[in-house]
Amino acid sequence: MEVSERKKYKAIIKAKQKAYIGALSKAQCEEVNFESRLNNLRNKLTHQLRKTDSSANSVKSMPTISRILFGLQEDIVRLSLPIYNFKEEKEVINTFVISFLSHRRETQYDGECKYYGETLLNLYLDIFITLTCRNTPRRIEHKPGFLVNPKTEQLLELDITLEEFLLAFEFQGESHYREQKEMEKDTVKLSKCASNNVILVPVNIYQLESRRLMQLILNSMKDSLGIKSQESGVSMKVDSSLKINPKHIRSYKKACQRIYLAETLFGSAIKWLDEFALRFRDTQAIRNPISSTTEAPRLTKKTNDLEVPELYTELKHV
């Protein structure tokens, strides 16, 4: 981002926020400490605009900024205050996010990802989770000690693990639907992860799209934990293969909140990534007809999938 553009954003954001505060009553400002929270957001963005594009440091503050912005946005709706669209604020954060992710895409995470499909999946998870949550370690191509192939007694590999969320991801290409050995290993991975309190989410080419992937992650967690969409709250499945504990529920709630946050704040970055994913799906359609047109199998059978806003709203009953 050019220096002149950075200065322009600073000036516009300052002027718009000042005008908005001026239009609120004293009671409205004081009810949720609105003025100081807007000032805090502006200060964070001013600091953000001093950073160098694409570096790891350029997105270090993104979880904090996004949390502040999201909280303000939610309170405006909750208190029926005059609309403030945060247009420039969102443009700033999306510009830095896209620049950072561009480098990761081009280098395939500095060579950590073997395949381009895995790279795209990691990019989505960056937007959904890593850039909305502080201190969320992720392992790529990890072999956990419990994941032993009973036939070979060798450790099997998980493409991505997010231990804080008790989640793991496997990117499945065409061989996962045609080769018996691959299908057997996939079954082992699903069951072994479940017996060790990890929800494994298989993802294929067809599911590399923001809306599909958001729903897949949250509904896979919901169904694996036996969370039903009803006002009575949480209902656990007696035959669940997971040993459900409070951390699973906390992880599910956090994932819902963060993915909903990402959907509302990182629209431009999501659209940017969806375009690359669409090109990839189009190029793979002929060579990989199954994995590019059908959903990957889940730990539990797909039941009543809900949209992200519905899942977020249902959290008050969980």
Compile the SSE list and pairings.
Blueprint: H1 3-23, H2 26-31, H3 34-48, H4 62-78, H5 87-107, H6 116-130, E1 139-142, E2 158-162, E3 167-172, H7 175-178, H8 180-195, E4 199-204, H9 210-225, H10 246-265, H11 267-284, H12 308-314
Parallel strand pairs: 3-4
Antiparallel strand pairs: 1-2, 2-3
Any overview of this molecule?
There is one protein chain. By secondary structure, the protein is α+β, with helices and mostly antiparallel strands. It has 2 domains: 3-100; 113-317. The chain contains 12 helices and 4 strands; from the N terminus they run ααααααβββααβαααα. Strands 1-2-3-4 form a 4-stranded mixed beta sheet, with helices on both faces. The chain is globular and about 70 Å long. The protein starts with a helix and ends with a helix. The model has no long low-confidence stretch (mean pLDDT 90).
Mean pLDDT: 90
List SSEs in N-to-C order. Answer: HHHHHHEEEHHEHHHH
CA radius of gyration = 21 Å
Shape: globular
Q: How would you classify the helix and strand content by structural class?
A: alpha+beta
| Total beta strands | 4
Oligomer: single chain
The number of helical runs is: 12
Distance between the termini: 43 Å
Strand content: 5-15%
Domain tally: 2
Major beta sheet summary = 4 strands, mixed
Tell me the helix content: 55-70%
- Which stretches are poorly predicted, pLDDT < 50 over at least 5 residues? none
Largest sheet strand order:
1-2-3-4
